[in-house]
């Protein structure tokens, strides 16, 4: 007697590409799936520097949310450490922020000079963490969302390997193009962004995703989650209060701009983030 069975389709996966390869393939995969993984994005030297500079902060930081409301404690995770204010903590992070391919990501999806850093946070998912609520990043600005263009675009850099066991990001490829944004996610549409340390996951503000569950007994999954947002929208993290003026003065000009120590001039005329009706950068010279 034979047993009839249907083999389950493998879960959907995002494309992996090399950073040295053809750029158009990266943008094509990102456009089609809503996310793409660029392998070996971070050089071994910068990866080592980031790990060395971040480690004391990761060790000292307790897991769980600093917010009292249940929605946010659930969203942030009880076994997850989130560390912000990274420009004060790591020179390697400033170097990575100036990476030409990372800049191309912002320029391409938000327009050259038309965006700021949204938040830059280490997300360290610890053993026994459960799956994060699936979400779209652009819902941070609900009244500004539209179906055509991006408000925000993100890179999640892997500082450790991301595996199915230790909490690799949950992604729903193609969900950035759903016309019904309220539609339920089906189990078979869910994939995991597994990647090696040093890789970067680029993803659309419209793709459904979330931190993955960590079923390991002793592994921390450490990612550096850093997105850009249109310059006329308020960023999630208040970088001007988490970075001192003294530190800002030492940062590369691009980083000063991205974290709001330089003012925003809209391509069509408006000016935002001014000090005394002038570019905030004047404060850096005093
Ligand atoms: O850590 C991850 O894999 C994704 C986290 C995320 O999407 C978030 O916290 O908004």
How are the secondary structure elements laid out?
Layout: E1 16-18, H1 23-33, E2 35-39, H2 44-60, H3 70-76, E3 80-83, H4 91-97, H5 100-110, E4 115-125, E5 152-158, E6 170-171, E7 191-192, E8 200-204, E9 209-210, E10 221-230, H6 239-242, H7 245-250, H8 253-258, E11 264-265, E12 271-272
Parallel strand pairs: 1-2
Antiparallel strand pairs: 2-8, 3-4, 4-10, 5-8, 5-10, 6-7, 6-9, 11-12
Helix pairs in contact: 2-4
The chain binds 2-oxoglutaric acid (AKG).
2-oxoglutaric acid is lined by residues 123, 132, 156, 169, 209-211, 223, 225.
What's the gist of this structure?
The protein has 286 residues and is of the alpha+beta class.
Structure explained in plain terms:
With 286 residues, the protein is of the alpha+beta class. The protein has a single domain (16-285), classed as Jelly Rolls. The protein has helices spanning 23-33, 44-60, 70-76, 91-97, 100-110, 239-242, 245-250, 253-258, and strands at 16-18, 35-39, 80-83, 115-125, 152-158, 170-171, 191-192, 200-204, 209-210, 221-230, 264-265, 271-272. A 7-stranded mixed β-sheet has the order 1-2-8-5-10-4-3. A 3-stranded antiparallel β-sheet has the order 7-6-9, with no helix packed on it. Strands 11-12 form a two-stranded antiparallel sheet. The radius of gyration is 19 Å and the shape is globular. The mean pLDDT is 94. It binds 2-oxoglutaric acid.
